Amino acid sequence: MSKSKKNVNEKKPFLAILPVAIGLILIFGISLGVWAFSGPKANPQISNPNDPFLKLGDWVVTNEKLYYSLRQTYSYDEILRFIDTELLKNISVDKNSDDYQEFRNELIYGVKKLEDLEGDKTPEEILKDFEDNMTISGYFTEAEREAYIELQYRREKYARQKYEEEIADKKKDGRPFDIAKYQTYYDENYLTTVKAITILFDTEQQAKNVLEKFGVDIEKLTANGWVSKATGEAMTEKEVKQTFIDMYNYMYRYYNNGAEPLLKKDTHYEVTEPEDETTVENIDFLDLSSDNVNKYSKFIFTSKELDDLNSQYKTTLISSLKLDDAFYKSYTNSPVKLETTKTGQTNASGYFLALKIEETIPKNYVFDYDDKTDADRIPDEALFDEIEEKLIEENFNDKVVSEKMFDLRRESELVIYDSVIEMLFKNAYDNFFGTTLSRKKGEYPEFKKTKAKSKDTVLSFTSGGQKITYKVDDLFNTLKNRYGVNASFTFMNTYLFLNNKEYNEVYNPITKEVYDKDRLKEIIDQDVKMYSYYFSMNYFESQGFPKSYGWKRFLNEYFLVSDEKELAVQIDVLSDAKTKFAKTFYTYTVTETNTDPMNTLLARMQKIYDEYFSGSVFNLIAYVDYNADGLVDITEKEDKSDWTNEQKTLAQQLLNKIFEDILTSTATSLYDQVNEIVGRFNNTVYPEDIDDTEMTIYERAKKAGLHVKLEPATTYTNSSSIVDEFKAEMKALFLQVKEANQLGTTLQHPLVGENPFSTMYGYHKIALVSTTDYTYKNADKTETIPTEEEIELYEKSLLQDANTPEDEKITISAELKAALAFYYDPVKNFFQSDDRISLGLIDYRSEKVASGEISYTDASLKAKFETISAALKKSALETIEEGE
């Protein structure tokens, strides 16, 4: 059987971005093999280029090759460290100060104060992760890590100092910020503040039932205010306020477990007696701050807080309700439906009533004012100064730090003599000002390249009147000690792959053996000449490699290869070699050399089968909503849960009761029956004058602040993004249907879970409506897992293309293809993932270093190799475990 050739340009990210003009090479046969341009800039060279750094069998990585690798990848960060350390050495640092400790905490933990930490990880675990990541980045000791933090702190402190000086200079000539920023800040932050009582109900009918319970005639809910059911007269201002107080205490008594009313007379409100014949008895509200009521109670809102809670609250309380002579305009005469279209609020449900008590409206100031037309809207200096202080702090950010540091480096007469490092710096400089700050050329100072040369100095700059230089040997030694081990991994991987004929069947650059002459020529003629052509077109000049560099020198310093043949296998063979390497991690079944079942295709495919479920369920959930936003409260940590033990017990009883009561429903389908009962519960009003033991489950649940929601039938599988508890319940129901031989059908009678279960959202009781059967590899639906022979046939079929002769094409049935895609492909992708390959390479490299086949000339680097390898392995294992 002939083996079709794959396109040599596959999986070449660089080639994918090259312009179409490369066709000129192929069409006109332009010769691109040799470049001999004159005048390349002589870059500083290390003094010991030929000394060995790393020995891999008979192959030696010299210091020169290492330096070129380190220069491309790590030199930029290192020269910034060197320059900034010198320039900022006089910035004082008090490591015991609160400011430094908060900066350090934010860098390590993401918060200024450890008590503000959220998530499952402890401070010790987060610190260990930080240390591991810093170790991988070349900071091996605590002193090195602390020096890194200290330099970051010095950069920020210096930048803030220059920023404040700049602000002070601008103040001499007027305002330091564009006047529009003052207006925007005022409009967004000096908001209307409202004091109000808001009460949320599950349904419009429940709201009416509660209104009726407290004496409001719900048949006369007009726009002109409430009418007393007892007297038939319009309710007075005092009566309306008292009704809101009573309804609030009734609906939210669970906030303090019903211990006492939330809003109490003489503490939160007082009844005022008539002063004369022209006044009447009324209610005045007192301190309604949460601290004076309950941690869950909130009566004072900014317009932003109302909008965040639900946009309909804002619309109603800010715009609709008015505080003027007609009191009835200050409260909702009828229940108002929550907003359901704004992002984040689309699942909100419920109706609310609200009483607007007070309102503080900011003055409509005009900061870019006209003395004549805006005389009464001119902000005073105190307000200007107040906003200015906020803007000063708000506008100091990472961009300011970067800008001030770039300015400082440029102003220190920085000269970089190495063209590659110079371009790394210039590109970063121009990208920051041009892209990050969106400035055009001419709007920021240019960092000019130098024509000066040096044999042994990478850069120079002025600090404190003294010229400071960074010698190339010093740079190399620093890079080697910090990043040499990381760089060595690439050399090791290349050696392990290209020096092994199992992975490389084209050309061995170490022994110079050619295994496939035609294939090698094909790669050179296509891929390598593409690079060669674009090098001749100065494509790499922006990276410090103009065409005058010379093709051979470019190969040596950019690609770290000695000739075109080595480049050919690097760009074409390595990706395939990794795939072949990954295949050594697993077999179809356990073998003498592979005894771990989870490293076999069969066990992993069986795991997919065992974990599989797919079905459509509807979900009845009992939940709490302490902040009254109409959404389910999510509890990610049990110790931060607002649920009481009473609520937890009642929630389960409530869900069971709803399913029991479907017998009283007039609907036909189970979903509609449950939905009808949910409606009854949502409209329930509990009595206040009887003991809890005499109440129904629905009444007790309402009194305890429980809500229920019925979610329509939705299809989920074991791969769906649902919480583990929900998956476990679905799987259990799925297996029951499997036992009854009813998979792949819509159930005549949906299967209901026996007991409610809890998640971070509340308590659930679900019903399985339909299922999807397993994927089978045969039409009779008797077999599922592909065999080893079927997999081999499938892999061969993937190599077929349009050039494969018809009589040699492999045909695979649609059923088997589906089974291979379902069971085999995910397992193959798992074993061939980057993390699995990385894990395998970590162990492979470690074995070779331990055996002595690979060794560092500097023995001290072996300890760093082991330290970094351990940290990398831990990270890879954690990533793989998260994906399991």
Explain how this protein is built.
By secondary structure, this protein is of the alpha+beta class. Among the domains are: 79-171 and 397-425 and 438-460, no CATH class; 178-187 and 367-394, no CATH class; 191-360, no CATH class; 594-612 and 776-823, no CATH class; 616-771, no CATH class. Helix 26 packs antiparallel against helix 27. It is flat.
What assembly state would you assign to the polypeptide chains in this entry?
single chain
Question: What is the terminal separation in angstroms?
Answer: 38 Å
Roughly what fraction of the amino acids lie in strands? 5-15%
Global mean pLDDT = 92
Sum up the overall morphology in one term. Answer: flat
User: What is the number of strand segments?
Assistant: 19
Helix-strand category: alpha+beta
Main sheet record: 5 strands, antiparallel
**How much helix, percentage-wise, in residues?**
40-55%
Count of discrete alpha- or pi-helical segments spanning 4 or more residues: 27
Rg (CA only): 37 Å
**Low-confidence spans: pLDDT under 50, at least 5 residues?**
1-39
Topology, element by element:
Elements: H1 13-17, H2 23-28, E1 52-56, E2 59-62, H3 63-87, H4 98-109, H5 123-136, H6 142-172, H7 179-189, E3 193-201, H8 204-213, H9 237-251, E4 269-272, E5 282-285, E6 300-302, H10 303-309, H11 311-320, E7 336-337, E8 351-360, H12 381-394, H13 398-411, E9 415-416, H14 419-436, E10 457-463, E11 466-471, H15 472-498, E12 507-508, E13 513-514, H16 517-536, H17 551-559, H18 564-582, H19 601-611, E14 614-623, H20 645-660, H21 670-682, H22 697-703, E15 707-717, H23 724-739, E16 746-752, E17 757-759, E18 762-771, H24 788-797, H25 814-831, H26 834-851, E19 854-856, H27 860-883
Antiparallel strand pairs: 1-2, 1-19, 3-6, 3-8, 4-5, 7-8, 9-10, 10-11, 12-13, 14-15, 14-18, 16-18, 17-18
Helix pairs in contact: 3-14, 3-15, 5-27, 6-13, 7-12, 10-11, 13-14, 15-27, 16-18, 19-25, 20-22, 26-27
